[in-house]
Design brief:
29% of the residues lie in helices and 34% in strands.
Length: 305
């Protein structure tokens, strides 16, 4: 069976994407056998991964936004080392892919099929997997409530527009976090639990996160007195108030959530008033650029240099 064989699981909205079609044809001309399957409704990504593994595919390409990537990563994580994942970022935000240095041009992204996969971590909460980040606070509500139509027109700026239009709803929320040798409680504006570095269309919450260090990066933005002015700066500058964050790295963290603290998982709302987030070290094989900022090996090389 040929090793140059891959299955592309493509979000149904991208079915007519000519750049993707051209990129697939390009790989076929290079000798790759690339099959394409489309998602239509919830559960399709998992079903298609199962079918791909049964058919003997060892490389799976996830074509879509952060939610699609998460769904396929979760399905693959249930079958360790059965297949590796190539990310074809086609969403509005593409937060994990941008932080990982994955090209946003489809033909360039598919060239990562030629790069050896690396073991990376995944996050887990309540049996759900996340590839990129869990976020909490007002910004998470903005992300969850940004309309698809607005994202089509404005792209990543849609999150900024939605946030700026909803100042009347702004309030701090109470949260309590507990982990190994770590405890924090109080009013907060934003929370990030990252395997990746950014969320919500480019807001960098966990700037030093690594996807292969066996830890989750925790970033907490305590609520100052001037809430509205602070949030305006956050949304406008991409969470540029770096010196205000409380940060740590932990293998797990438990969160007690009070009313008003909105949490989502790679863009999907998450319910529960007491949540435990854990890292699953080396749970997924992903084709990343050799110089990806999210790889620990690259950081070690830079220090030696």
């Amino acid at each position: 069976m040929s090793e140059r064989r891959a299955l592309l699981i493509l979000h149904g909205k991208q079915a007519l994407n000519e750049e993707v079609r051209a990129a697939v044809e390009g790989k076929r001309k290079q000798g790759w056998e690339v099959a394409v399957r489309l998602t239509w409704e919830a559960g399709d990504a998992q079903r298609l991964v199962e079918e791909a593994l049964t058919a003997g595919y060892r490389q799976i390409i996830a074509g879509g936004g952060d939610g699609t990537l998460r769904d396929i990563a979760e399905a693959l994580a249930a079958h360790p080392r059965k297949a590796s994942l190539v990310l074809l970022p086609l969403g509005t935000a593409n937060d994990f892919s941008r932080a990982a240095g994955i090209p946003l041009v489809p033909a360039q992204a598919l060239e990562l099929l030629e790069v050896a996969p690396r073991d990376i971590d995944l996050g887990e909460v309540g049996g759900q997997i996340f590839l990129n980040m869990a976020t909490g606070g007002f910004g998470s509500q903005v992300t969850a409530n940004t309309s698809e139509d607005l994202k089509k027109v404005l792209g990543g700026a849609a999150y900024l527009f939605t946030g700026l239009s909803r100042f009347s709803e702004l309030h701090a929320a109470y949260g309590e976090l507990q982990g190994p040798d770590f405890h924090w409680s109080g009013e907060l504006l934003a929370l990030g639990i990252g395997n990746g570095r950014q969320a919500g269309g480019g807001h960098v919450l966990c700037p030093q996160a690594l996807a292969d260090d066996g830890l989750l990066d925790i970033s907490i933005l305590p609520a100052p007195q001037e809430l509205v002015g602070t949030l305006k700066n956050l949304l406008s500058d991409g969470f540029g108030l770096d010196n205000m964050f409380v940060r740590t790295r932990l293998p797990w963290v438990e969160i007690k959530v009070a009313e008003g603290l909105y949490i989502n998982l790679d863009g999907e709302p998450l319910e529960g008033d007491s949540l435990r987030f854990e890292v699953r070290p080396g749970a997924l094989q992903v084709h990343l650029p050799q110089d990806s900022p999210l790889l620990l090996a690259r950081q070690a090389l830079n220090r030696r240099g």
